[in-house]
Design a protein that fits this description.
8 helices, Rossmann fold, six-stranded mixed beta sheet, 2 domains, three-stranded antiparallel beta sheet, Arc Repressor Mutant, subunit A, alpha/beta, globular
């Protein structure tokens, strides 16, 4: 179906945006629209330029006879910082401070528009690491972890703190917490293997014990951890159980008011 170019551009853009990081065959696309592959390539270049101008990402084209194209979520630095500053302002109010100098952001994580932005932002920080799976922990880590996995075009592996029969066979690891206790987390045996390149994503890091537990889990499978991404990291304590992580926001508390700021390196 040849149709008008405007319609073709919209349909191609929708296919790319609905399946980020998953290649779309240029040959099949050209055949489906009854046009040349060269014309489809021109269409994709136009779409990529438009998405880049919006600051949300770009289209990557793989050259060659069997080449394809895919949408790579890569928000511009200006766009990402602007959205994160908006979010930091929203969270930096006394009403959101919880006991233990924690901040309430559950409503943000379970709001799809914010969760999808956070996932795409997180994916943009680690796309060059080529992860093959995103690992997170229940419960609040799942929304950001899921959208990160979606943006990267890879599956999500969620660690649980209780093994359920419906989860099938699982591996359990024990890890120390910041207060000296020992917790156990479980992950299904079918979710990772030795070839996995794991990106660890979590919603919050204070001392880093949960992220450290997930690191131990990946090591138990013989998998490689290629990065650790955190939505909000606490400024205190400065010494974490895990180093080399990247966070989107940093939390500090000043006279009973949570103060969130965009982390360096975003």
């Amino acid at each position: 179906m040849k149709g008008k170019r405007t319609e073709r551009l919209i349909r191609i853009a929708s296919r790319l945006l609905l399946s980020p990081s998953r290649p779309m065959s240029l040959t099949d696309t050209a055949s489906g629209f009854s046009v040349s592959k060269t014309l489809i390539s021109d269409d994709i270049e136009m779409i990529s330029e438009s998405l880049s101008s919006e600051g949300v990402g770009r289209v990557v084209t793989e050259r060659g006879r069997s080449g394809g194209a895919y949408f790579l979520p890569s928000p511009s630095k200006e766009y990402m910082e602007s959205k994160l500053r908006e979010l930091a302002k929203l969270l930096s109010v006394p009403e959101r401070l919880l006991p233990g100098e924690l901040v309430y952001f559950t409503d943000i994580l379970f709001e799809p528009s914010w969760a999808s932005f956070l996932g795409f932002a997180m994916a943009s920080l680690f796309s060059d690491k080529s992860p093959t799976v995103v690992m997170t922990s229940e419960v609040k880590g799942i929304p950001v972890g899921f959208f990160t996995a979606y943006a990267l075009g890879v599956p999500l592996a969620a660690c649980r703190f209780r093994n359920r029969p419906s989860d099938g066979p699982a591996v359990g690891v024990h890890f120390p917490t910041g207060n000296g206790d020992v917790r156990t987390m479980y992950l299904g045996t079918r979710l990772l293997d030795q070839s996995s390149r794991v990106l660890i994503v979590d919603d919050f890091m204070r001392g880093g014990s949960t992220a450290s537990g997930m690191f131990l889990m990946a090591r138990e499978f013989g998998a490689e951890v290629v990065g650790v991404g955190i939505f909000v990291s606490s400024a205190e304590p400065k010494k974490k159980a895990l180093t080399g992580y990247r966070s989107l926001l940093e939390l500090s508390v000043d006279q009973g008011v949570p103060m969130l700021s965009v982390s360096e390196g975003v």
